[in-house]
Design a protein that fits this description.
Largest interface: A-B, 47 and 48 residues
Strand content of chain B: under 5%
Number of strands of chain A: 2
Strand order of the largest sheet of chain B: 1-2
Oligomer: heterodimer
Largest sheet of chain A: 2 strands, antiparallel
Order of helices and strands of chain A: HHHHHHHEEHHHHHHHH
Structural class of chain B: mainly alpha
Radius of gyration of chain B: 20 Å
Largest sheet of chain B: 2 strands, antiparallel
Strand order of the largest sheet of chain A: 1-2
Distance between the termini of chain A: 14 Å
Strand content of chain A: under 5%
Structural class of chain A: mainly alpha
Shape of chain B: globular
Order of helices and strands of chain B: HHHHHHHEEHHHHHHH
Chain lengths: 318, 322
């Protein structure tokens, strides 16, 4: 498996894509037979729109997982960035642009800090980001104990606006996915992400830029969290100190559904995007079927179990 | 520490001060805990009062029980994220009956049954299907949460039988009852892990599964057993915690999954498996609780507690990473 940077067979990174597309098709067929409205354009756009936040967080998470790591600080970082966004803007339209830029930068910097700790302390990313998660949650609670601030009306354009009939936030997310997918496929540093995840030691011995790869990956994850935080503020109108809590673990589900191996080195972001759509679709279908939110959790867990049992990571069975 | 862990230790301790590092990573936690206690005693007169100590012990017991199970799982290169969800489920089951002592047998049976199912699912997914422990236990965590919410419709009601109240929050001659339970559990599982043939197998499977396989050890059975131990102890801890808090909601035990992992890591249980001890993990649990207690006692804001926990976990892990 070493030295696979140049000669990766393309299918190897996209094997999981097939599975998730088949599942999506199955949900479509099931939905269409159950209710007419499921396949209506309005509903499809709805599903597309509702997947935005999950898709954005999972994008960064995918990169972290591709290197064989994980980012457990995403939830707290989303909470922190959403509180800072609405708290600092506080209804003033003139502050929107500087605050948005500052928050995106802060997200990236915290991601870089995660990577720095992983590199310098040589501690597993799981632990570093778990610790960071606690620190960020504490910081968030220092800043706000409850919903804080407000945003100008036009800020909600990010969540509710439409350009040519397409929701703005969701479309920005898709563009980001395409950008990252191209980066992973065609740029040397993108290929090195796979190499580091596939075999860290081999990548190091081959003289690959492991430090840059980790900085890039966790920085990107932090950036994605900040973007999610902005989106959530646009959707809810204010930041809340616990708004991100659930994303820490749910951000991993689309990644796995999309066929990215948790052990790293295999998968891709497009699968993750479809994974997010699958979850959004299933929740939407369950809503149509009047299934309570509680059973939606059970459905999600069963999907994870199904997916992980089917994909089965070959390298772990040694 | 058992002899089986020796090669790993020497390999892991290559550095500027190998001997010191190795000592520190083995016994560091037993240094941190007394220091914390001394700081607490020096800074606040009420810290060492019998009332506070007895309260501390009361709080340590449920976490201590969970941590023992987590230790087994982590030694076989795993992680159990489902413990907190299992605890909450046990607590919800405890209130699912009429709330009298007559229901104890059914409650214990229901909790044991659920725990065994959860442990088997976790173990099966990890050992037989090669699913990463993180994901397998994440799935059961969400699954249990879903069942719990579906069962309670979001708002649990009912009472915990008085017997569990006595177990969870009662004291006999000033000694918390749940600490007695903790001691019994610790003694039993200390023997299992550090003095039994099974314990040896656990270390071998965690240290190097291939070696374990070549030695003729049923690595899958050992792994499944570890997940079983973890979920059963989590169920028991949930019952005790429900007796301690009295009120049951859907989130009893929330945070215990991460706290138990943190306790193990700062107690010297390696995330890479094959290394760890019950004593270390317990000391880790005590450290977390003492630190949390001191933050409150010193009148620091609750946020500081969370931040300290974050800083401690990263740097404790760094200490062991060498």
């Amino acid at each position: 498996m070493t030295g696979a940077v140049a000669a990766f067979p393309a299918w190897r990174n996209h094997g999981g894509l097939l599975g998730v597309v088949v599942l999506i098709a199955a949900v479509f067929i099931l939905g269409a037979t159950l209710t007419d409205r499921f396949l209506s354009l309005g509903n499809i756009v709805n599903v597309y729109e509702q997947s935005t936040d999950l898709a954005l967080v999972s994008l960064g998470q995918t990169l972290a997982i591709l290197t064989g790591g994980i980012d457990l600080s995403v939830g707290s970082l989303i909470s922190l960035t959403s509180c800072l966004t609405s708290g600092l803007i506080n209804g003033d339209p003139n502050r929107v642009i500087p605050v948005v830029l500052a928050v995106l930068a802060l997200g990236a910097v915290i991601g870089l800090l995660n990577a720095g700790l992983v590199i310098v302390l040589r501690v597993h990313p799981l632990i570093v980001t778990l610790g960071m998660s606690a620190i960020l949650q504490g910081a968030t609670l220092f800043y706000a104990m409850g919903p804080i601030g407000k945003v100008p009306r036009n800020f909600t354009f990010l969540a509710y606006g439409r350009i040519a009939g397409l929701p703005v936030g969701a479309t920005i997310a898709v563009l980001l996915f395409i950008l990252i997918a191209l980066f992973l496929r065609y740029l040397p540093l993108g290929r090195q992400i796979y190499a580091v995840g596939d075999d860290d030691d081999a990548a190091r011995l081959a003289g690959l830029r492991r430090t840059q790869v980790l900085l890039l990956v966790y920085g990107a994850s932090g950036f994605c969290c900040a973007a999610t935080g902005l989106y959530l503020v646009a959707r809810f109108g204010a930041g809340q100190p616990y708004t991100g809590v659930n994303y820490t673990l749910t951000s991993i589900t689309p990644v796995i559904l999309g066929g990215t191996a948790l052990s790293g080195g295999r998968g891709g972001v497009i699968g993750t995007l479809f994974g997010a759509y699958l979850i959004s679709l299933v929740n939407n279908l369950l809503n149509f079927m009047d299934v309570s939110k509680h059973y939606q959790l059970i459905a999600q867990a069963l999907i994870i179990i199904l997916a992980v049992s089917v994909y089965m990571d070959r390298r772990r069975t040694a | 520490m058992t002899a089986t862990t020796e090669p790993l230790e020497t390999a892991a301790s290559r550095g500027a001060l190998p001997r010191f590092r190795s000592l520190l990573s083995r016994f560091g936690i037993f240094l941190i805990l007394p220091i914390l206690v001394v700081i607490g005693g020096a800074a606040s007169t009420s810290f060492l009062s019998t009332g506070n100590i007895s309260n501390l012990l009361l709080q340590i017991a449920p976490l201590g029980i969970v941590v023992i199970g987590q230790t087994f799982v982590m030694i076989v290169r795993g992680l159990d994220l489902s413990v907190a969800s299992m605890m909450a489920t046990a607590a919800v089951i405890a209130t699912g009956f009429a709330g009298s002592n007559a229901d104890i047998a059914s409650i214990v049976a229901a909790v044991a049954g659920t725990s065994i199912c959860v442990g088997l699912i976790n173990g099966f997914l990890v050992a037989k299907r090669g699913v990463s422990p993180f994901l397998a236990t994440l799935a059961t965590m969400i699954l249990l949460q879903g069942f719990r919410f579906a069962y309670t419709q979001g708002a649990p009601s009912g009472n915990v039988p008085p017997f569990f109240r006595t177990l969870g929050s009662g004291k006999t001659y000033g000694i918390p009852n749940n600490c007695v339970i903790l001691l019994v559990v610790v003694a039993f599982f200390w023997i299992v892990l550090h003095r039994s043939a099974f314990g040896r197998r656990v270390f071998i499977v965690g240290g190097n599964p291939v070696t374990g396989h070549l030695l003729g050890i049923r690595t899958d059975v050992v792994t499944i057993a570890c997940y079983l131990i973890s979920s059963c102890l989590a169920g028991a801890a949930g019952l005790i915690l429900s007796g301690y808090v009295g009120l049951v909601d859907n989130w009893v035990g929330q945070g215990y999954e991460l706290d138990s992992i943190v306790a193990c890591v700062i107690g010297g249980v390696s995330l890479k498996g094959g290394r760890g001890s019950i004593a270390g993990a317990l000391a880790g649990a005590a450290t977390i609780m003492v630190a949390a207690n001191e933050v409150l006692l010193f009148g620091l804001p609750i946020q500081v507690q969370i931040i300290i926990k974050g800083v401690v976990i990263v740097f404790a892990a760094a200490l062991y990473a060498g």
